[in-house]
Every structure is written in structure tokens, then in C-alpha cells.
Amino acid sequence: MHPRKEPSRIKAIVSERSRQAAEIVAPKPMTHEAQPEPKQHDLTFSASQDTEYAADDVSQPQTTDSASQLTLVDNVVAQDMCLPSPSLSPVAAMNALHADSSFESAEDPENETDSSFEQNDAQFTDSLPRGALKSRVPVIIAPESDGFPVPSRIPKASTLMDIPNVLDFFDSVPEELKTYLIYHLLRRCPKPTLHFVADVVNPALKCDFLTLLPLELSLNIVKYFDAQTMCRAAQVSKKWRHIINSDEKSWKELFDRDGYVLPEGELARAIREGWGWQFPNGNADYEKDISMSALIKPDPESSSAPALSPLAGPSERSSSVNRRPKRKACTRVSSRKFSKRKISSSGTDQSDSSDWKKEASAAEGPYAAASAAAAAVPYPDIGISSLRGLHLYKSLYQRHHSIHRGWMKPGVKPRHIAFRAHDRHVVTCLQFDTDKILTGSDDTNINVYDTKTGVLRATLEGHEGGVWALEYYGNTLVSGSTDRSVRVWDIERARCTQVFHGHTSTVRCLQIVLPAEVGKRPDGTPEMMPKEPLIITGSRDSNLRVWKLPKPGDPGYYQSSPHVDDADCPYFVRVLTGHQHSVRAIAAHGDTLVSGSYDCTVRVWKISTGETLHRLSGHSLKVYSVVLDHKRNRCISGSMDNMVKVWSLETGSILYNLEGHTSLVGLLDLKCDRLVSAAADSTLRIWDPESGQCKSTLSAHTGAITCFQHDGQKVISGSDRTLKMWDVRTGECVRDLLTNLGGVWQVKFNDRRCVAAVQRDGLTYIEVLDFGASRDGVPNDQLGRRIVVNRWGQEVSDTDEDYDLSDG
After folding, report:
1. Fold for domain 207-286+365-374+386-408?
2. Where in this chain does the record put each F-box domain (predicted)?
3. What is the pLDDT of residue 293?
């Protein structure tokens, strides 16, 4: 073919192909009888064909003749349905992008694109479903000429008018390709644009499920949170804060689950003083009494307290406030009227407090207590108004959690009071609560002290020998003595109400056994054992005795001598015989009793019948301590043979021999899935009761361990000259609580206080360390220093000659 005729030939071919393309694109008229449904993507081609056309297009001769250019289809319908050229194929575009290694100038930080897009390009392409790049991409192809397809290229300058067509095209492609296109669009975006996209996309992907769900369902979700998650969730938004804080039931369950105990009267005090409205911050802050401020400065917008549910939302609270009738704000209170309003010593209005007192007394759950708190202090002017809300049990949890953690913080200083007790005699037993401290001594007396002030309330006299065991429940105290008697006392009235005889030697140990759930009956109700509270005593006469615990108000009973028939005693139940030597230690739960004896055996008893279930033999020397692991149906014993043994209560066989101590193991304590043993070798050991593995050895004392107690966080132990506190998790000694001592007789602690009976300079002292004093507003000058008080609670010098001990 002659070269000069080539343009004319191409022109003719292009004209013919354009006409045919127009016929393909343009819609054909349909008859009324048969009009098929419109079909999308009738023209589909594979990626291999698409690449072939692109390569063939490069091999075609180029010309600048305007006649050789393809003309646009002059048809509105055809223009609306025109399809992209092969150059817009995702594969061709991807190949072109790979040929160009840079998208924007690296010198312009505003237009710099994220390199992570480039690194993940191949990985993203490979992750697309097979055939995604081949699927339904509409391309117009001109008919073949001389066996080669000629692509239809319609060069056109892009304008803003093309944006709707681009969006329509994006809507028409499959979901897989939409993801692919968005990916490559984002690759071409500068960072400011990516930030804008992130600001739009991120909120769209988030869902505030607590706000969208009904409140009941939200609370059902929240109850699975732990304390840390609850506090974090309360910081998300005001709505979340309200849901979390007002969920009194979940906070009460967390309070109980973490082992915190409400002291007697603390809940009533929290309701009365408005603790549920406060958020003390830090160790130096504390819960204040805001009842007076709420009483004297009522809400000027209000005339009466609304009965709001603790679950009422902020909008409900605000709407309730807005519906109240307005009145003029009072700038002062009439002295005449105020004098008629009798203010009690607790700081509440007696005439107005009857409502919340009734609610508090009738409270059977956390929400009832919260309602009483809302009625007690209805107008708290505290904190930010938009964040104000009642959170009674969260406040109680925060208080106890702060006190609990304060033990382990060196910067937290306790209030330390000390007072003399029992002259120079040994304190053989000690128990206390937030109200009182009871001590038994070999001077035959039992003393009752005020826990907060150290005031000597009473001295219980009656035993004729040293008191070696005591335990109390409520207002009833039971004591055992070397005079072989068991006495029952009314603590408040400081008088003995019953005296039991029967043992023929020293009563060495005793326990009050309360009914506990031991299983389920066929009807699903819990089975409780024992049926009523019991007293179990162990003696050097090798026997154990069981009595009913007298109830408050029962008539007095005084058994004159051990020779009186047991049948004459209305409280006597039975005698447990079997040991051949002194009974040194006992432990009971439900219907099971475990006793350790100097006959080197441990016996397991069924309390309800008195029968011996197992006689556990294995120790080679005297048994000094036993504990009952009713959770695993096991018992544990410590002996003079240096061994700690773990026994199965089901089979009576030995499970583990816990070796490590090199001297008498005289003390055992099992709590919070940790067994702690203390020995005369000056060490304590922490064991896993499940596996018998030794977790830590606490070795810093220089003498035999005389007393200790532990919980899941700490161990407090007494030895020769010090009282030490240990971290259970690490086994490290955290601090010395008391130093320069002559001896440590007894130690006990609860959530906030540690009480120890010690010897200083030949005299016996009771030392009280209060780690929660700062939460009660005690001044800093009274923290961290030892304050000696006399029997009336007055601070005195440690060498004060006026310190009268004649009655204590």
C-alpha cells in the first residue's frame, strides 16, 4: 500500500468504526410485545484482552490530522451511557502507576503522601478476590481491522461537569472494585486530605451502644465490668458517666467481690452526710459532711425535694427541677426560726430527717439506699452542676479502695495511738472491730476498749485463771480459761450471762460456728448447717465439747462445778472424744470440724452426729495448727515436725507434704487462695493451696514468729522486736509498722486498722494504726506519730506518773 494513501484509509476505517460504535451504544427501539429488562455490563472483557488492546494502541501510527480524530457521539442517550476507554481499566491504571515511582513532590510536606500505601500496594492487590479486576468493567472496542482490534479512544478534557458521571460510574462497579478504587484514590491524596477523610470516617465507624440501647440493657452490660473498666467508661461522655455512676447495684457487687466490708454504721453515715455526691481526690482529701450546707442553703430554685430514681437521666433530673415552682432566694435564716429547728449532734435536721431515716431503715438494696441518700441531702451545692449526680456505692467503693491501697504506699501515714493494758501480763487473745477491742490475758481479765480513742470501756471479771481463748458474735462474747470453764458475756452490759463446766483441764481453743450453706435441697432451697449457732471448745483434757450459743435475752445459767450432770445444762449438745492428748487447735465450717492434737493426729468430725469421719495420721510430732479449706474439701495441718500437710476430707488421704520450714510450724492462715505458714525458724512461707507450690519465703525476722495475719494483698507478722508488713505478690517487706519492741503477743487487722498487743520496756501496750484516718479528716499533725493515751482517751506522756492502771 502506498504511504500517501494511508491517512485516507485510516480515516475511512475510523469513520466506519465510529458509526458502528454509535449503533452499539445507542439504544434500539423496542416493540411493545417484547421489551427485555435492561441488562448491565453487556460488554465485559478479561484483563488479558484489556492489556492487549493497550499494547496494540501504542503500535498504531500517530497522526495530527484532525480528520483522524474520533468524534464524539452526538446523541444525548449515547453520551449518558458512554463507557470508559481501556485506559481507565484498573489493570492499565495500576501498571501506569507502577511505572511512575512518585505521586507528588517530596519537597512539599503538605502534599506528601503516606508511604505505607506504596508498601502495601502489592499486598492489597493480591488480597482482592480472584477475577475482581476482570469483572464487569465496561469497555467499548472498535471492530477489528486487518485482524487487530482498534480501541475507541475519545480524548476529552476533564471538567467539573464530569464529576456526576464519575460518581455514577463508581456506583455501578462491584464492591470489590470500589474498595480497590478508594485505595488508589487515597494513595494520591496528600496528608491534609487524609486527615480530613479520617475525621469523617472514624466517627462513622463508631457506635455509642450504651446510649442507643435501653437503660436496662446498658446496665446488664455494665455489670460485667471490673472497677478499672467502670472508671474508664465513666470518662467517655456525660451519658456514660451517668449510667456508670448511677448503677448502684453493680458498684455494690464490686464492693463485695473485692472483699470490702462496710463497718457498722458507715452506710447510715454516708447517707446522712451526703458522701454519694462527693468525689474526694487523692489521699489528702476525704468525705465531708455536706448535710448542714444543704440544710441551711437550699436550692433557690426549689421548694421541695423531688423523689428521683437513681436511674433517672440528666434530662429527667433537669426537667424535674424546671417544673418546680420558683421562689425568692433566702439570703439568711431567721435566728428565731433556726433556733426552733433542733439540730442533732450528727448534723441533721431532726424534723426533716424522718423521711430519709425511714427509707434507710427500710432499705433492702443499693437502690433503696441511694433513694434514702437523695432524700437526706437533696440540694448539694458541690462540684460542677453539669456533672453532678448521686453515686452512693461508687463513693463507698472509692473510699475503701483508697484506704486499701494506702497500706502499701510509704507516703501514707497512719494515725497511731497506744495505751497500756493488763499491766505487765501477756495478752493471749485479741479481737476487734471498728467499735471495740477485746483482749484476754493471763491476768484472768478481759478488757474492752474503744477502737477510735483507746478509752477503757469495761473490764470483764469472773474467770479464776488466765483467759486463753475468746471469740464474739454481735454482742455475745465467749471465753475459755485455765479455770476449765467456758463463760458467755453480754459485752455492752459487761456482765456474765452463762457459765458452762464440763472440761477437766484448760480450755485451750474455741470457735463460734454459724450456720452456713453446705448444699441444695431437692426443692432448690439452700441447706444450712449447723441448724443454729454453736460453741465448740477444745481442751487439754483431750476432749471437745459442743454447746448451743445462748441468744440475747436468754435466761442466765451458771453451772457450779464440772461434776454437774451435762443433761442439766440446756445449752449442752455433746462431747467429742477420740484424741489421746491435748486438743491444741480447731477449725469448723458447716457440719465439718477439724481438730489437731498433741497426739500427732488430726481428726475430722461430723458436728451434727459427733462421729469421727477420718483420723489423719502422718505427723511424727505434736500438731499445733489446723485450717479448713472447705472450698476444696481439704484441711491443712502444721506440726512440731516442721511439716505442713494437706489432707483430703473426702478420702482422708494425704495430698501434699509442704516442706521448707526447719522448725515448729505453729501458725497457719488460709485466705484469698493463699496459704501462709509461720514457724519458729523466723520465716513465713506463702503456698498455693491448689498445687502445694511455695510461692514466696518471707525472711527478715530474727526470731520465732509469734503472730501473723494476711489477706490477698499483705501479710503482717510479729516477732522479736518488730511488726512487719509484707507484699503477698512479691514476698518483699514493705515497711516496719512497729519497732523497738520487747515482744509481739497478738496482731489483727481489718480494712483500715491494725491492732497489736506488744511489750515495751516491760509493759504491755495495745497499739492501733489507722490507715483510714485521713479519710475522716484527721489533721496531718496527728498522722505518723505515736500518741499515748490514758484510760480516758486523753493524750499523756509515755512516762506520765498519773497514768492509772489500777483498773486496766
Report:
1. Monooxygenase (1.20.1280)
2. 207-254
3. 61
